[in-house]
Fold these 4 entries.
Entry 1:
Amino acid sequence: MYIQILYRQLNIEDIIKTEVPLPPSKKAIINLMYTENWVREKVTSELKSFDISIQQFNVLRILNGQKGKPANLSTIQERMVSKMSNTTRLVDKLIQKNYVSRTTCPTNRRKVEIRITKEGKQFLDTVSPVINVFENNLTAHLTEQDLLTLNELLNKLRTVQ
């Protein structure tokens, strides 16, 4: 027996309870901002049980992607999804959790090197599969072509100077 799941689509006008017709450009921006907040709330909720913020999780993934090479604060900041994050504070919190280490470069004492620890890698090994399943579930009602188109349109939107 074939079961079809119906998704209830709410228009952004219904969500923000406006009866005023929105111009397409304003509607798109409001929809993007609303959806960004909606996704952030969902991800935050998923990460809550692991006692880690989205930004901290992002830092761990950045450091893990360094493949054992150290990163400095500016490298981490450049690669952050949210550029508004206080990278120093995030690294300090991850140090307290023993997920990252910070050392002074032996050849240049002004340079600080940040690395993911063994505990940080183990944490990512536990959390990443859970987040992957969560992300797949969140986008399950979109086709592969929908996702490609969405990414293409988002990339295109950011080309505005």
Entry 2:
Amino acid sequence: MIALVQRVSQARVEIDGRVRGAIGRGLLLLVCAEPDDSDAIADRLVDKVLKLRVFADDAGKMNLDLDAVAGGLLVVSQFTLAADTSSGNRPGFSGAARPELGKRLYERVLASAAARHGVVASGEFGADMQVHLVNDGPVTIPLVVRG
């Protein structure tokens, strides 16, 4: 799975002008499933994200995870993370999982996160979404989790 994690002071996702999911301080997780991904990989991604120590401790050092700061997690599907621009200027997306697998694994990420963390919000798989965020830092971390 390919993911992009952004530390935010606030974030929300809207669909057709209506807020679908929103958090205050926490992490925005953009997620893309790849063809060979599995439930185990989705679970490992969630584990990694929840344990990321990207929030400042009292000394100002990035040393705290999401639970330690009682932060929220906003999960949004984003197949464009698999964009291939190696030949030409128009991106190709053959590296992304087919929609059926992508949706199943996105829902697995959501379920796994909700089972382990108190505040989890989401977008909607396949929807045209507008994501609003205030990147805190800025802190943006790419993650790739594979079998």
Entry 3:
Amino acid sequence: MVKMSQKGEDIDKGALNRQQDHWECVFSSNVSMFGKDPSNPALWASEILTRENKKKVLELGFGQGRDTLYFAHEGFEVFALDYSEKGVECLTGTYRQLHDSKQLNSDGSITAIRHDVRERLPFEDGTFDACYSHMLYCMPLTTFELCSLSSEIRRVLKPAGLNIYTTRHTNDPQYRTGIYRGEDMWEIQGGFIVHFLSREKIDLLSKGYDIVDITEFEEGDLPKKLYRVTLRKKS
């Protein structure tokens, strides 16, 4: 059984809270840390969203915006949220440059907003056709916070809306390495805290959704081992 700790027992909340400053420093020192090409999950998500004619997309934890820019290029209306002020600043500037030079699909758009996903999402119920996030679910968020986030995403999705996310999981080679921060969260090389999700925890986070697909894949060095999870909001 997955245990949730609402009050933060056994969790190093100080280390988790310091991650925002860590990411700000990372983005400031390396403006293309993840490269400029869209991720494979974004390519896959674009296909399914296009097939289902879902145009209004919420992206959470956009990082440096490589997937966000791809979605806009493909004609999606994207509302992109991240808690890094530097990330919002960089994405907004890049989008304006590409838009002004007409390098993006005229139907696509990006609205970048600084927001902490531990708080209520700043949108009305039933606003979006879909939500997309690449490795947000394995950020230093407690299980309780992830459950709250999944519920919030469900709230802002339209009927039958999709929640597509990726996460590193407990078969990843870096699981149980580095400094333990509580609830399967480990501070690995580079100072990044990763929440490695088990399949059981993913089932817990799927409350209120139908599971459409869960696919394992690998990415980057090591390589990282991830799940790509596709959920559909229950009516």
Entry 4:
Amino acid sequence: MPTSLMPRQPVPALSVPALAGGSLELHAGRAASFSLLVFYRGFHCPLCRAYLTELNRLHDEFVQRGVEVLVVSSDSEERARRARDEWSLDRLAIGYGLALDDARRWGLYVSTSRGLTSTGVEEPPLFSEPGIFLIRPDLTLYWGSVQTMPFARPHFKDLLGGIDFVLARNYPARGEA
């Protein structure tokens, strides 16, 4: 069973290899307002393709709000590279090789392969389901959403509107009680 993260509490450490080289990590104080951490299912998922394509399109709007955008999956380097290249994700910092134990520490669900997807791509034997988190510069959780299925994820345009509201009103994280 996944762990449940609590708002206003520290998030788990994150360090995975990055397609751009080196590692993709959360660092205290690097983001002006938030780090947006998006966990996706992997190259096999056609819904992830549409979701990340939208995030790539809106990337600069997040950056204008002081948001660092990080995208991670449990995919291999080869599959993550294919996702980046075939899905035209030229603006996103993409990490790969997320260990499933680390996925569970983030509260993500883990699924087993069901074979080929509707796009003809084989699912890995095990992979994490989607999750999206806004993390304060002090590395505490502000907001999070995890899913057991690939559909009905939060919309990035809605998230941008929420960030605008939060920043304008210094709105606190909720759900910590």
